[in-house]
TrEMBL record:
This is DUF4129 domain-containing protein. Residues 1-18 form the signal peptide. InterPro entries: TgpA-like_C. Residues 170-235 form the Protein-glutamine gamma-glutamyltransferase-like C-terminal domain. It comes from Hufsiella ginkgonis.
Length: 243
């Protein structure tokens, strides 16, 4: 009986160990559901007439022979001029040097124009000093009523000391204003104080110009050329009414 049961168990377990191939495993694929785009869509088209106007407009023609067609010759010249320096100014270091040079030339040109405007030779300002002359009086002890201005002016101009001659012309104008009762002269007064005393508007404007010109020449140590001196002398004569 026991033997019979043992044989039965052997035959019952035979299929489990007799087969060498395992059962295949099926792969599971996750299915994705596509979501339809339901946003509104509006078809757009170009305005052919407007595009044609843009094509014909000079503002949208990016060519050297087209975009500047409406500019004047003066504008084209400056465009060409600045284009010469475009390569130089593009680099940081050389660009800064060029700007310094450009501003320096601009300032020098302004100074040159200003000196020419007030009747002085810009070249002589920095290259030559005026001829010296002995002054027959101390500046701190000047008394405009004790100076023979015509003689002293001729003496200074004779040795080409035009700066001193301009100073004497200015002092003679102060004497003229004092003698006319327009100002009250004092040795310690400033030129600005005399300007404030003038009530005559026309005389005040003229004297203001002469004062400014005198101060640039005398205190600025600027030499004066013969032609410029004659113009300045004429202005002082016109102011004082001399011929």
């Amino acid at each position: 009986m026991r033997f019979f049961l043992a044989v039965l168990l052997c035959f019952a377990s035979w299929p489990a160990y007799g087969s060498g191939n395992p059962s295949p495993v099926k792969a599971t694929i996750e299915q994705q559901v596509a979501v339809a785009d339901t946003s509104a869509f509006t078809a757009r088209s170009f305005n052919e007439r407007q595009l044609g106007e843009y094509r014909r407009s000079p503002a949208f023609i990016y060519r050297d022979n087209g975009v500047y067609a409406g500019q004047s010759l003066w504008s084209r010249f400056w465009r060409w001029f600045w284009g010469l320096f475009e390569g130089i100014t593009s680099a940081p270091v050389t660009g800064n040097l060029f700007k310094i040079l450009f501003w320096g030339l601009g300032i020098a040109g302004s100074i040159y124009a200003f000196l020419k405007l007030i009747g002085m030779d810009p070249i002589q300002v920095f290259t030559r000093k005026p001829t010296g002359i002995e002054v027959p009086y101390e500046e701190s002890l000047e008394n405009i009523h004790e100076i023979s201005f015509d003689d002293e002016i001729e003496r200074a101009a004779g040795v080409q000391n035009y700066r001193l001659a301009v100073r004497l012309l200015y002092l003679s104008s102060l004497k003229y204003l004092s003698d006319s009762g327009m100002i009250h002269w004092q040795n310690d007064k400033t030129n600005g104080a005399y300007l404030q005393e003038l009530a005559n508007t026309d005389k005040k404007e003229q004297f203001s110009v002469l004062t400014r010109q005198f101060e640039y020449i005398w205190y600025g140590n600027f030499p004066v050329q013969p032609d410029a001196f004659q113009e300045i002398r004429g202005a002082f004569k016109h102011f004082t009414g001399k011929k």
